[in-house]
Amino acid sequence: MLGEQIIKGMAVTARNFFGSYVSKERLTTVQYPEERLTPKENTRQFPFLVYDGDDREKGLRCVACQICEKECPPQCIYIVKSKDKKPDYKGQPQLYPATFDIDISVCMSCQICVEVCPFDAIKMDTEFELSTGDRFGGLLLTKDKLAKPNEYYRRIHPTAAAAVDERLAGEKARAEAKAKAAAEAKTAAL
Amino acid sequence: MNAVGERTSQNYEILPKTGETGEPIGEFLEVSMGPQHPSTHGVFRMDVVLDGEKVVKLKPVFGYLHRNHEKIAENISYLGSMPYTDRLDYFCSMTNNWAYALAVEKLAGLAVPERAEYIRVIMAELTRLQNHTCLIGFFVQDMGALGTPLMYAFREREKILDLFESVSGARMMCNYMRFGGVRCDVTPDWLVQAKQLVNDYGKFLDEYETLLTENEILLARSQGVGVLSRELAVNASITGPMLRASGVNYDLRKVDRYGIYNRFDFKVPLGEHGDTYDRYMVRILEMRESLKILQQALRDIPSGPVMDPKAKLRGLRPKAGEAYGRIEAPKGELGFYLISDGMANPYRYRVRPPSFINLTILEDMCLGHRIADTVVILGSVDIVLGEVDR
Amino acid sequence: METPEQIKLRLETAVPGAKIEILPNDCPAGERSLLVDTAHVLAVAKFLRDDTQLRLDFCSNVTGVDWPEAEIAEKIKVKQVGDGVEKEVEELKKNVRPGFLEVVYHLYSMELKHGPVVLRQRTANRDAKAPVVSLTLVWRGCEFQEREVFDLFGIRLEGHPDLRRILMWDGFKGFPMRKDYVPPDDFEYEPTPHDKVLAEARKHYSPEVKT
Ligand code: SF4
Ligand code: SF4
Q1: Is residue C86 part of a domain?
Q2: Is A102 close to ligand 1, i.e. is its CB under 6 Å away?
């Protein structure tokens, strides 16, 4: 019969329509912003800089090696090295970025900066509500806007942060052990 | 400079006003369809010359999204191009990644570990599922089924994108594969979710097919429309589902057997008539085959590393030489042609975009049909302008 | 499938007068290509398509490559006679390779499911008027790709039925994919963290500002 399949199709539509009132399966949308989906753990939006402790200047892990600046495909990172040095988490003196800007109107959230950073200093944020009225200044994130504590990183990417923390702690312990051994050797030699 | 595009006389030769025997055939109407036309899937324009409602000439015009992807890639490192490949065919970033990774692996001689190969197959087949599901949604939308099938398609696609997001961090711009493997491993939890999705997907496809496959309007609008003959399809380098709808058995997963596709048992669905309905049907059947591959891959996936230990992320400098790597992307053969001169950036980087080349015979398919059918035919070609224009 | 040498041998008998050269490829997994002179390329292409052993009916990829004039340092062994003893000495010799443009075709066979055979043709120089021969009449699939090669590289493909720009607009000057193409510097003037972009934009706009 002509139209039979159309009626069958209508039945499918009706099933979906009425089903959406009862079955969560068929109603997949949520009413943002009142309702929110829980973000996935690996979600990435824009990069931020991690700092340890509670001083956002001193605790910054970034050593201004500029690898990420070079590797960033659309070239949206801008770094100026500092003139002086400050101790890093292992206690070694290191440079730090005097300026660290990311132009997030250019950034394409590709995570390449995170992958190439050898110091686990830059990580991806999950924050996405970044709309601003200022087209230029508002989308140029400077160092103090980028710096976020390690606790924050642990909260948004727990698994990855745990691995990083473990690795850094291991490195620190090794560095300390080495320093201790060197000191002991020194005293023994005396 | 004229940003809109100057008309050259060569572009539009004057069409005859009289037929072969000298009888007047009335006025032709020249219509510029697009670039902001809902059926053009982006910014794409067709210059159509009409005789009444019949198409007598059709020239596709594109380039509105042109950003010279190839030039950008020739100026940055091999790794840096990977996120840009996501943006070629933004529906299928996983397969774009794979094609590029394959070409670089061939050029630099890198191996890919077992597990990574399996993950790649899983990702590629999931991509094929979501691409074809959505395409069919768009295709019937072009016929006038506004919204409903497309929304069902998007509902299912969202589940696949959720899976992508939970491994790679992004729904569409995955940037997931690397030369010599994939960026990060999938969790056992993820595999369970993927299995669940694959098991449920068949049910969704059944429902989708009840809604569409035998629908009288779809049949009337698509059968016998835009017929593409076998010979022309081969000669015009058509690839992907469009080629197979014309009855040519050529699927790179079977021909090249790149990756580990030789381990899976699946069929290549073929069409008979080469019309738009066959293209629709081939895609539906291909999804069912994809489900089979996914089931086998998810069952057999071994454990192990996901990156070749020889591969390094930064500073890849392949020896001078050239390589052409190609895969069966959902839209057709996606190839990357790379020439290295030993530097950190490729000397020549070329993308062979399937949907760009599939547009070659758009005019041939549309001639003689009504203007409303051009929309349907274009929908069945499956283009994404990010890839056509690059 | 036949090796490039075998194909070359058969081509030379089938297309008398064709000059065919096999180009090496240092990439281990890559294919060596056949360089064919422009006068015979159409006949060669037709032969490759119609030959029963090859049946290369599918022209997958067409692209251009720009090779500007380059200095190539080559190590050559020179025999030197000094103190009555003949010695081999390596000498660094610099050759200037003239610039040229190249069109590359990747051919496969859908019927016999083999490939690729890489076909190349070169222009005499990098002049926009130096022609190569279009193969659209042999493989329809070249149509848009050859237009793209014309558009982005400025290679004139003789015999193409509809040779005009495809990705750039018709009034565009220059060929963006050439190695010596100078990109425009009229960026939208906006503060970015990158001084280079800023400086270029300033340089572009400042004469206007002054006048
Ligand atoms: S973020 Fe990492 S890669 Fe970038 S400059 Fe700082 S330490 Fe170096
Ligand atoms: S995410 Fe990508 S684009 Fe953004 S700053 Fe990092 S490397 Fe650059």
Answers
A1: no
A2: no
Angle at B387 between CA B248 and CA B194, to 5 degrees: 75
ipTM: 0.82
Print the domain residue range for A148. Answer: 47-184
In a domain, A33, yes or no: no
Q: Which of these, B136, B314, B135, B307, lies nearest to B213 by C-alpha position?
A: B136
Q: Is residue A38 part of a domain?
A: no
Give tens-digit pLDDT for C51-80: 888 888 888 889 888 888 877 776 666 666
Chain B residues lying within 8 Å of C110, measured CB to CB: 234, 248, 250
Question: Does any domain span residue A141?
Answer: yes
Residue A159 lies inside a defined structural domain of this protein = yes
Q: Please check whether residue C78 is in contact with residue C91, taking contact to mean a CB–CB distance below 8 angstroms.
A: yes
- Looking at ligand 2, which atom is closest to the CA of residue A71? 7
Strands in chain A per DSSP E: 47-51, 77-81, 86-87, 93-94, 97-103, 122-124, 140-141, 147-149
**Burial of A30: CB neighbours in 10 Å, binned 0-12, 13-18, 19+:** exposed
What CATH code is carried by the domain that includes residue C117? 3.30.460.80
User: Three-state SS for C98?
Assistant: coil
Alpha-carbon distances of B188 from A43, A61, B159, C208, rounded to whole Å:
18, 32, 18, 62
Residue nearest to atom 4 of ligand 1 (CA): A68
| Residues from chain C contacting residue B323 (CB–CB below 8 Å) | 27, 29-30
Dihedral pair phi/psi, residue C108, rounded to 5°: -130, 170
**Is there a cis peptide before residue B35, judged by omega within 30 degrees of 0?**
yes
Q: Is residue C206 part of a domain?
A: yes
> CATH no. for residue A173?
3.30.70.3270
Contacts of A149 by beta carbon, 8 Å cutoff, 6+ apart: A50, A51, A52, A54, A56, A59
| Type of residue numbered A38 | T
Confidence of residue B6 (pLDDT cuts 50, 70, 90): very low
Q: For residue C208, what are the domain limits?
A: 181-211
In whole angstroms, give the CA distance from residue B260 to residue B358: 27
Chain C interface residues (partner B, CB cutoff 8 A): 25-31, 57-61, 63, 65, 104, 106, 110, 113, 116, 118, 139-145, 152, 162, 164-173, 176-177, 181
With a CB cutoff of 8 Å and minimum separation 6, the contacts of A89 are A52, A61, A168, A172
Considering the domain architecture, whether residues C211 and C166 belong to the same structural domain is answered as no
Question: What are the tens digits of pLDDT across the range C12-49?
Answer: 888 888 788 888 787 777 788 888 888 888 888 888 88
Secondary structure (3-state) at C96: strand
Do residue B152 and residue A73 have CB atoms under 8 angstroms apart?
A: no
Give the pTM: 0.86
What residues contact C142, with CB distance under 8 A and at least 6 apart? Answer: B237, C59, C62, C105, C134, C135, C136
